[in-house]
Write a sequence for this structure.
């Protein structure tokens, strides 16, 4: 079993004919993901072709859903079009939308989040690497070559650290149930608590790795949830320990202002919840195998 995506996923790619959409559609098809449709307005009726595989292209998500039964969407469109793409997928009844686009304005995302809360659609992202269930489905840009089926769930704000930790797990012979990159933007569709709850309920996930970063209070909230609701072991890492106060870190712009959102406050909260926190990314797998 897995969370969010599996062999039954029927994926539609919004922006399938763009540079990023084309390249990563090829990667997802090569991994074995069931890509059933693409969407590019004005190119409906054409085909996306990759070696022996052909994916029909539609002018709208609604048309793709009606023709193919797509139940997950991934968005590869520029920031100025991404919000409309999320709304379109939501209005077409897609239950899970993954948006990799970065630089979506916060005010726009506040409106999107409010809209999603009134619908039955879950958003992963924006500004995230997507998710992957080893051996079943890859929806995003996490390299398929570094994963291995297994029983460790990974949830992370950082794309790069997700790759690094997953690769280290696989090198040590430790497989993953599902790896979820939730992104580091201030307004997200899905947060740590949402994913922790899914891992807790997934019988195939035996323990969880949480990768957070400085800024905000999502990690402190996750710690409170873990203390109250998680029976499975959680290991964590907080990125940005050495970032100077007031300076933005990384592409997501994580920042510590004053005494809030510091690595120390997050590590303390996680430790109090019974979570072992690694000193550096290389140390995470050592803690997992203890």
């Amino acid at each position: 079993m897995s969370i969010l995506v599996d062999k039954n996923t029927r994926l539609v790619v919004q922006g399938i004919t763009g540079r990023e959409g084309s390249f990563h559609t090829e990667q997802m098809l090569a991994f074995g993901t069931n890509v059933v449709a693409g969407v590019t307005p004005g190119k409906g009726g054409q085909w996306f072709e990759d070696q022996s595989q052909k994916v029909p292209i539609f002018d709208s998500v609604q048309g793709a859903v009606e023709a193919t039964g797509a139940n997950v969407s991934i968005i590869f469109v520029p920031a100025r079009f991404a919000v409309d793409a999320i709304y379109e997928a939501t209005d077409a009844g897609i239950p899970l939308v993954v948006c990799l686009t970065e630089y979506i304005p916060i005010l726009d995302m506040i409106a999107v989040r409010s809209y999603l809360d009134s619908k039955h659609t879950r958003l992963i992202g924006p500004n995230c690497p997507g998710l992957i269930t080893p051996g079943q489905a890859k929806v995003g840009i996490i390299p398929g070559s570094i994963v291995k089926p297994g029983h460790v769930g990974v949830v992370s704000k950082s794309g790069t650290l997700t790759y690094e930790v997953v690769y280290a797990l696989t090198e040590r012979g430790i497989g993953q149930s599902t790896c979820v990159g939730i992104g580091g933007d201030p307004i997200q569709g899905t947060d740590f608590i949402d994913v922790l709850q899914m891992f807790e309920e997934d019988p195939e996930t035996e323990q969880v790795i949480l990768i957070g970063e400085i800024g905000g209070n999502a990690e402190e909230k996750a710690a409170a949830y873990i203390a109250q609701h998680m029976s499975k072991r959680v290991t964590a890492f907080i990125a940005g320990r050495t970032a100077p106060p007031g300076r933005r870190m990384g592409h997501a712009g994580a920042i510590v202002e004053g005494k809030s959102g510091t690595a120390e406050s997050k590590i303390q909260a996680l430790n109090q919840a019974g979570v072992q926190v690694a000193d550096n990314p290389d140390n995470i797998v050592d803690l997992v195998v203890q």
Summary: The chain has a mean pLDDT of 92. The chain has nine helices and 14 strands.
